[in-house]
UniProtKB/TrEMBL annotation:
Protein name: Taurine dioxygenase
Organism ancestry: Bacteria, Pseudomonadati, Pseudomonadota, Alphaproteobacteria, Caulobacterales
CC terms in the record's Gene Ontology section: cytoplasm
Residues in TauD/TfdA-like domain copies: 9-278
Top-rank EC class of the record's enzyme: oxidoreductase
Lineage top rank: taxon: Bacteria
InterPro entries, per database record: AtsK-like (IPR051323), TauD-like_sf (IPR042098), TauD/TfdA-like (IPR003819)
Entry EC number(s): 1.14.11.17
PANTHER family reported in the protein's UniProt record: ALPHA-KETOGLUTARATE-DEPENDENT SULFONATE DIOXYGENASE
Amino acid sequence: MTPTADIAIKDLKPGFGAEISGIDLASAPDAALDQVVDTFHRHGAIALRGQKMTPDDLMRFIGRFGDPEDHTQTRFTLPGYPKIFILSNRVVDGKPIGAHNDGVGWHTDYSYKPEPVMLTMLYAVEVPDEGSDTLLADGCAAWNALPADKQALLEGLRLHHSYKHFMATRQFGQQQTLSPELEAANPDVEHPLIRTHPADGRKALWPSTGTVTEVIGMPGPAGLALLDELVEFMTEERFVYRHKWRVGDLLMWDNRCTLHTGTLYDDTKYIRTMHRLWVKGDKPY
């Protein structure tokens, strides 16, 4: 799709992602918004800076990509907007308004579901002066960089994902024993290690940390060691985009072909508040 006269597109890093400028998402015409959606599906991630988005604006925009996804944990959803989740260390009247240090550690969202979320969107409301960067790893570039014999070894492997295991082993004091209801609603699943993107058939390494308990077809320590090796490889600097946040930034990444992680910041000195939205996905293949 050819960019419209006012919209400019450049790589977030060579060969990955797109920074889109020259558009106000809250008031842009349908044709321009369609171009944003198309750019997302082809580039793995998009970033737009300087946006001023109300919760209603966020909901209208996210709806262009598909049906917004619910959140497993509902405690920190934005009042009146159950599809908008608050990430924050701000405390009001002695109570936290959002989840703090959520998403630290390389992973892909909802990998413990039969149909993981297709995309994740973060909108920056309050941003620390330093730290709290978001890192995205390009699974397609990592797959293409593997030698043919390694690709052949990995092609048929599948991963066992467990939400129960994920919540029991989380860092930063976020461990949680699931209620019987949450455990029943989130049974273990299996997904391919190599995922095919439905938009154009490109393949991506699709490992994760936190949720994986076993590599099907290579059980035991050898399989988990291979998984660690692949995550380390995929998150080498050459495959990673680092987003340094400004207020009004909107960053969206494609969970079908990336890993991501948050990074820490001085939470005794700075306040960070982000709005997170998800879009429903489909079964990986």
